[in-house]
Amino acid sequence: MLPASQHEVPVNKFSFSKLVCILSAMCCLAAAIPSSAQTFDTLLSFDNSDGTEPQLPPVQGVDGNLYGVTFAGGLNGGGTVYKITPEGVFSTLYNFCSQPNCTDGDLPFDGVLAGSDGNLYGTTLEGGVNRSGTVFRLTLQGVLTPIYSFCSQANCADGASPNGILQATDGNFYGTTMTGAASGRGTIFKLTPQGAFTLLYIFSGSYDINESFSSLIQGTDGNFYGTTDLGGFSNFPDCRFYGCGTVFKITPKGNFTTLYNFCSRKDCVDGASPYWPDPGR
Predict the structure, then answer these.
(1) C-alpha distances in angstroms, 117 versus 21, 84, 174, 233?
(2) Is residue 62 part of a domain?
(3) For FRET with 52, which of 10, 80, 81, 178 sits at 20 to 30 Å CA-CA?
(4) Would residue 204 count as lying in a domain?
(5) Where are the alpha helices (DSSP H) in 140-198?
(6) Does residue 135 lie in a domain region?
(7) Is 93 among the domain residues?
(8) Count of domains forming the chain
């Protein structure tokens, strides 16, 4: 992990974040094209002072304002949480790395969600007590509390660099990590709003390898679904060693099932390397 005084983004994470922003911009542009009667208003153009690399589209808080995160930039270079009114009045709600050694988190990833208690919740890729990412709670007044710091268990058995979270129907948070655990391939976890952590699953690094940047969604059956962009079984020559990705299901108790292996056909007509399901915010 980076020293607390530095905020250079690792090349692979930075490139992926830029890709997400480009794809999001393309989707927004496509949505604006069909009707000539539609008008487009730019509410804000980010610069480094108010953050850079905005993540998922903002969510609406209970107060009617919109809230989102930037992956980097801001006062300390570690990213921000911002607020913007429907009329376009912008303010920075929180600058990460405001606490010594970035114990409050560094590089927020995925976005924020509006919790059932009215607060905002999200994750950071780095920072925290162990510099391996956090889950945080943020009030609408800008008071931040890290409720979990990853790599708190021996040998990072709980995972590192979380991908984002969702709040399930039971009120708890569920998510995945990119790395950590014995395999180094990440985990699936459950976290109560009070910060009690439960490890649900460790990706093995073979047929269910996790290199996905993928958060979870909850189905109508109460189970959770996600993707990996590598791993699984494939007949496609280029995927025989690492696999070409999977769709998986996991129950709230941690029972894991691979539902589909991409590139199952030799011509790979079914696609490869799925990622980034929208958590349904």
Answers:
(1) 29, 20, 16, 42
(2) no
(3) 178
(4) yes
(5) none
(6) no
(7) no
(8) 1
